[in-house]
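Thread: quick sanity check before group meeting

JM: Hey all, I'm pulling together slides for Thursday and realized we never actually wrote out the predicted structure for the chain we discussed last week. Dropping the sequence here so it's in one place. If anyone has concerns about the input, flag it before I start.
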Amino acid sequence: MTDNLITVAANQFKPKGTIKDIQQYGSGNINSTFLVTFNSQKPFILQRLNTTVFTQPKLVMDNICILSDYVRQRLNPDNILQNRRWLFPQVLLTKEQKNHWQAADGSFWRAMSFVDNSQSFDTIQDLQHAQEIGYGLGMFHHIVSSLPVEQLADTLEGFHITPGYLEHYNSVLATAKVKQSPEINYCLKFIRDRPTLPHILEQAKAAAKLKLRIIHGDPKINNIMLDCSTKQSVAMIDLDTVKPGLIHYDIGDCLRSGCNRLGEETDNWEKVLFDPDLAEAILRGYLKVAQNFLTAHDYEYIYDSIRLLAFELGLRFFTDYLEGNVYFNVRHAEHNLARALVQFKLTESIETQATAIRNIIEHLR
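JM (edit): ok, ran it. Output follows.
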């Protein structure tokens, strides 16, 4: 990807002035993201979608546009904001009024409005930050809770369906040349020792205890923007994974990413811990706006979702490592192994604190 292609892509989305600068932005593992700035207009976010991951990029953009139109209508009469700022990133159109631009080399580009005066963090800064992370996810779920799931396409079939990831892992393991090391052996044993865990949410869905809703799909804490002045959550970004699913995928993923103070990329995987104080703060913020649509069964499976999503991501990282790093962006050959170790250690910490975490959930109901 050349600088010239990036500039050409940015110019497709009707900038009113001359581009001042284009810088790589964020720390995402999938898409290539850039901040485009100008002298005479607001900046915007430019992204090249990873079409190996998002094999139906046009459907991804259609989903985001449907959601954007719905949220804009919903926010106007909704009084739950209580004078808080809450934004939804808007899709910018090309000169031909399309929601994307495809280059001659086949690369797929889109532009979104930039959430101004906001920032995100890879790790939670304090309990107030944790509560705002929970509020941000709760607000997203609240706003989209009445959008019929059939209006959005399932652009990532199998995404967060953990039994499918386990099946893929087993097929990769059957043919991979697995090296021997204490770290690899730890991962192999960790997965082998938990044969029933991957199925827990899907079994609850099959038993009609949990139902499909609209989910964000990737509610890591750095996808929830905070106002620089008020420190309140103001938006959820990275909407490519929005689709029908179980909200427990979102709840579990948010707590998984938020309650590890060392962060996903730490080298000190053996010191990774799940922080129950952060979990309580996130859930407190979430339930401020989510209580109205949660059922008794929803509460029942919150702990399982936290444990499962940490395990699932570890499983995905480890599988990608065995497969030769074909899915996640990596900085070195052992990167996905290191990431897997972090998630499995986090899962282990969650399991040792099961009673305390369940008590927190029960207390907040």
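AS: nice. Residues 302-323 form the longest helix (22 residues). The mean pLDDT is 92.
JM: adding both to the slides.
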